[in-house]
Amino acid sequence: MMKERSIFFPRTAIIVLVGALMGTTSASVSPQELPQVTVNVFPGGFNWPSFVAQDKGFFERNRIRVTLQFTPNSVAQMTGLAEGKFDIAITAVDNIVAYVEGQGEAPIGPQPEFFAFMGSDSGFLSLVVTPDIKSFYDLKGKTLSVDARTTGYAFVLFEMLARNGLNEGEYSIERVGGTAQRWNALRDKKQSGTLLSTPFNLIAQQQHFIELAKATTVIGPYQGNVAATRRSWARQNENLVIAFVRGYVQAIDWLYDKTNREEAVRILEKNVPEMSPGLAQQSYEELLDAQHGFSRKGRINFEGLRTVLALRSHYAQPPKTLADTLKYYDPSYYDSAVGEQRPNR
Length: 345
Fold this sequence. Notes:
Elements: H1 2-28, E1 36-41, H2 48-55, H3 58-61, E2 65-70, H4 74-82, E3 88-92, H5 93-100, E4 114-119, E5 125-129, E6 143-146, H6 154-162, E7 172-175, H7 179-187, E8 193-197, H8 200-206, E9 210-214, H9 215-219, E10 225-230, H10 231-236, H11 238-256, H12 261-271, H13 277-287, H14 302-315, H15 332-337
Parallel strand pairs: 1-2, 1-3, 6-7, 6-8
Antiparallel strand pairs: 3-10, 4-10, 5-8, 5-9
Helix pairs in contact: 2-11, 2-12, 5-14, 6-14, 12-13
């Protein structure tokens, strides 16, 4: 009898002790005590997964606290990333490629430390023009705006125009800044067209501006926004990178669950000042479109990334032929967080 009790008791004690310790650990750490990660982003609806992960506690469940920091343009963002002013950037992967190759707009030289570790979306890019423009041909001799001339989505714009019969020199380009700044300038008719992301393309249409074309309809698959950071920071904070990926992916999964639609729309309204209830409902349809919405599980679109490299090979200065996707994307953090995504270079 004593022998049976001596075997049984320790097993029970271990189970109880482990359960108690887990409960104590979970309860004893407040959100303020969790390690903080600062994420620099452009304003817009494409931050929805981050808004959801904050609101629903997905980041905290993965033992990090995330603060979002907004940037006015890519020059400020890439300069800040190089200087370590924040930890992670949600940015166009073209920015990462450009600065790795020393082709960036900011005078900070090549940044081999930059790399992407998770995908997000195609950029949700639409070419929006003033009401007097009815076709691509009408843009001949007009001025269009970009964030930066040599990075971001400028080459997408150039390619869309080229495929519709307009070559460089047949239109003018002005540097204006991020999506919000470009929409403000377009609204004031300082330029005749620009690429806008959701919800700004929808806001523009409500005010009788014209969506001439969606970028992916013209140029095909495209990798837009990614999560990126510096290699040295990622090596020193691998657990934080993995935690961020997990929280972000859980938010995307939650968004794609249609039973969460109304709550998801309320979160979007709360976090994007330009959002009205009707606009948020429209944004839901665009941002969670089965083909063109957020990347399922935050996966990188390798075909889309190859498009980025092809455009940069064609338009960037000094000319370089770029082909190796894994020079700019390290899948190891994503693999550890979510599961293996086998790249096809």
